[in-house]
């Protein structure tokens, strides 16, 4: 396999492209198949439609399946439109059931039927089973390509089984032991098999303390479990402990990326619109509900300012510090929100407890407020020559930042208790709430202090 560097990547790609353009099939296959699959993918994405059709002709369905399953969903949809039905069915026959199900779960039923009609009944059954599970659950992301063994088998028998079935399995580092009812009974690692006596029975080598997940467990919980135990794979069982699949660490990496993208979208009030491949119209459509809702929240902020119009008319200088107060409150609240959402996602919130976590954020807000208040007490008299204004702004900011951290910490906890994703307590939402609270604190203090100004 060729390992490309920045220096030879361009020249090597040119050689492959030249072979493709002159229809030198043997040279193309020799150069192309020497590449790492990811480099093959990069090369394929640079081709024109005419050149891609040559690739489909020169590569077998098995060879092309390695490229197809690494494409992004939209790229897969475009590619499958260029393939004839027989080639498409052959490609999916070579793919693992979970990768095939990931794609087929996002396309029309007509496409699903077109693909499944050409597969062997057992393969089609596996894919339909995966499609039957609810999205973002263990059942939906598990793979059916795994090896299970019985406790009465000898180590020699299992090693021989691995030689025969190992190439088609997703992973062979863990082998799961089942009883006569196909219920999960134990687990044995490849290492344990290799160092054991060939005549030893599996029941004497396996561990019965198996950590497993249920088919309806949330994929994020599965990711946390694999992270906690440093597993390469975890078995998936039904409510009756029947072994139905496994989830490997490479699938979990995809889950972590997906969940992180989703949380970023929630925090930025742009869920579903973070994909740069979306059109401007689609992105705007997905973002607009939040923006419109926050616009109405902005009217509340304007209403708060309007309630203290008399105070502003008497001391116009107070208006200068409104952006400072609002920005500081919003930023501080968003920081607390990010900390809390992460602690909820990683499980550290449960370890620390609600009281200790919120206490820590409140303490952080107090110290931040104190530091900022001291800085303002020094700067405002120098710049504006008004000590009393400095006191009002400093005290207001102290209380605002202290409360902003509480809001940023408590809101996602409440949402989490409601069995919703805490990330929906988005940054813009928290910012708007803290803006309103900050302005009320600011103008209340300023109004109370008018007689001293």
UniProtKB/TrEMBL annotation:
One of its GO terms (molecular function) is magnesium ion transmembrane transporter activity. Residues 142-203, 206-262 form the CBS domain. Keywords: CBS domain, Cell membrane, Magnesium, Membrane, Metal-binding, Transmembrane, Transmembrane helix, Transport. InterPro entries: CBS_dom, CBS_dom_sf, Mg_transptr_MgtE_intracell_dom, MgtE_N_sf, MgtE_transporter, SLC41_membr_dom, SLC41_membr_dom_sf. SUPFAM superfamilies: CBS-domain pair, MgtE membrane domain-like, MgtE N-terminal domain-like. Homodimer. This is Magnesium transporter MgtE. It is a multi-pass membrane protein. Gene3D superfamilies: CBS-domain, MgtE N-terminal domain-like, SLC41 divalent cation transporters, integral membrane domain. GO terms for cellular component: plasma membrane. It is found in: Cell membrane; Membrane. Belongs to the SLC41A transporter family. Acts as a magnesium transporter. PANTHER family: MAGNESIUM TRANSPORTER MGTE (PTHR43773). The chain crosses the membrane at residues 290-308, 314-341, 362-383, 389-415, 427-450. It comes from the Bacteria.
